[in-house]
Amino acid sequence: MLKFVLKRLIGAIPVLWIIATLTFFMIRLAPGGPFDQDKNLPPDIMKNIEAKYHLDEPLPQQYTRYMKSLLRLDLGPSFKYANRTVNDIIAAAFPVSAELALWALMFALLVGVGAGTVASLHPGTWKDHSAMGLAMAGVCTPNFVLGPVLVLVFSLWLGWLPVAGWYGAADRILPAITLGAIYAAYVARLTRGGMLEILRQDFIRTARAKGLPESQVIIRHAFRGGLLPTVTFLGPAIAGIVTGSLVVELIFDIPGLGRFFVQSALNRDYTMVMGTALFYAVLIIFMNILVDIAYACLDPRVRYD
Amino acid sequence: MALLEVEDLKVHFHTRHGVVKAVDGVSFSLNQGDVLGIVGESGSGKSVACLSLLGLVPSPPARVAGRALLNGQDLLGLDGDRLRQIRGRKISVIFQEPMTSLNPYLKIGAQLMEVLTTHERIPAADARSRSEAMLGRVGIPDPGIRMDQYPHQFSGGMRQRVMIAMALLAKPDVLVADEPTTALDVTIQAQILELIRDLQRELGMAVILISHAMGVVAEMSAQILVMYAGRIVERGAPADLFRKPLHPYTRALMDSMPAPTDGGSAAERQGCRERPVAGRRKRLAAIPGTPPDPANLPAGCPFAPRCPYVLDICRKTDPEERPAPENSGRTFRCHVDI
């Protein structure tokens, strides 16, 4: 297992290098630069600024300079937020995004696994059809539609929950549902499929023949295998939730990393774009390794050496 | 009083294509320590009959009717919780497929121990030591190490031994062995049957041995039921059945089995699969046709379309079960005296 993790971590290095290189050149290919939107600066001042951020150097030189600082885990200064480094901004904003993602993931798993299990235990009944109908609607509704609708209903009409912000516990509910709904829908469908597959296996009949209560049959014997498809989906789901939070953070005015990511791309804040992209890449790679480890723990037949 | 008394058991599935009468009026009784064999082709209702007693028949929902008294208690009227207390403790089942009947995600030890922790309030340590002892008893070497392994680390024969250990842990009164050797190599088949026989004698439990192979059942059972299309067509002691089968279907089953004089090995006799006939004096007789569609049984005797002795009456009226002319205790269900 340790060998597997090490192998995956080493394998991540070239992936990150490719991502860094591609992002570096792509953001520079985009028209405009970080300081174009400022008022027309006198050429001298512009020169000074460019010199400060080494934008006057030829591109290959900038590239090697950036790569060298990357090796020291230094993502450089932000071009737009004066006096703040990219590391600082990520450290300040990411915990908010992480919390939002965590709530959304919990919502997705609780609702998805619950609904999927109920549907699989009563296939073809109204419980199944209503759960799967809702799931279908969930899959089809983008979060930039769902968010405003939820705000309209629960904040503006019913007045139960705040419209936006990130202060108290009540502020977490709507963003978490908005972000997690589509994943709850996917998880419900995957859980139903996985559980249906497992529930007709011979070993479930064996468990019943042993006289186990139905709850034990499902929890001990069916979940292990029935949730494997869901666990497989968790890797992409976490990636999706983390990056999906960009939109949700904008809708609900949440001071997370997503806003910085979107803003920095618009601002051509080169280091900030690079920094957030790489940070997300590392996060997703790490989550995928975690999912693979979880997979091995659930299915003893999976071996990684 | 018999240990298990089944009277007029009916298992009907109501499907879109009509009523499937998987089991239609089966009666038998089983005494303490008896071995009862049930023989028949696939789909004859032999497994469904036994599994329905425990409420284990698969979907679509079956309608189970009749009576099944275990020590005087009717199993068919029991609610879910009471029935669960019977399963695994009073009546255990060994299934046909050892490769898929164990949970691949759980350790063997956990799967064994849960039988005991479900039915008896005993500490985990006791459950473990008893499970380990039982694993050793069914012939698994190093049971202490094997307890912590997963099913994929066991061979087919070893898994069937685990299944047997699991079924016997709670010392049931009745063991239902549903085709316990069908999925195994012929060399392993004999070992597993011997193990079941030894444990049956040792624990004094009753066994219902279900098989499509007459040879498997004949060696162990005191009495044999031959089933066809959901009903019992003949019942009797194996020796009588072999000496003179009374039902054409029983005779056809016998003819489809290699005779010992053909030079087949003991293991070969136990299966009635097709085997190469080179060097044999005669070809094995196959039963012509296929078992009838249980949703659409023919009028009269269900075996009539495949029967070599068929008379006009067979196609019109279904024969009643009647006692054999010469031997009390034997019955058969046929118009013809063959």
Task: Give me the strand/helix succession of chain A.
Answer: HHHHHHHHHHHH
Count of discrete structural domains of chain B = 1
What low-confidence regions of chain A span 5 or more consecutive residues with pLDDT below 50? Answer: none
The quaternary structure here is heterodimer
Please name the two chains that share the biggest interface, counting residues whose Cβ lies under 8 Å from a Cβ on the partner chain.
A-B, 22 and 31 residues
The main pleated sheet of chain B reads as: 8 strands, mixed
Describe the protein.
- The complex is a heterodimer of chains A (305) and B (338).
- With 305 residues, chain A is mainly α.
- In chain A, 76% of the residues lie in helices and 0% in strands.
- Chain A contains 12 helices and no strands.
- In chain A, helix 1 (2-29) packs antiparallel against helix 12 and helix 7 packs across helix 9.
- Chain A is flat and about 85 Å long.
- With 338 residues, chain B is of the alpha/beta class.
- Chain B has one domain (4-105, 150-332): Rossmann fold, CATH 3.40.50.300.
- In chain B, strands 6-7-8-3-9-10-12-11 form an 8-stranded mixed beta sheet, with helices on both faces.
- In chain B, a hairpin with a 7-residue loop joins strand 11 and strand 12.
- In chain B, helix 3 crosses helix 4 (124-137) and helix 3 (108-119) runs parallel beside helix 6 (156-168).
- The longest helix of chain B is centred in the middle third of the chain and has 18 residues, at 186-203.
- Chain B is globular, with a radius of gyration of 21 Å.
- The two termini of chain B are 35 Å apart.
- The A-B interface holds A 201-203, 205-214, 216, 220-221, 224-225, 298-301 and B 54, 56, 58, 80-81, 84-89, 92-93, 95, 97, 100-107, 114-115, 118-119, 150, 152, 163, 166.
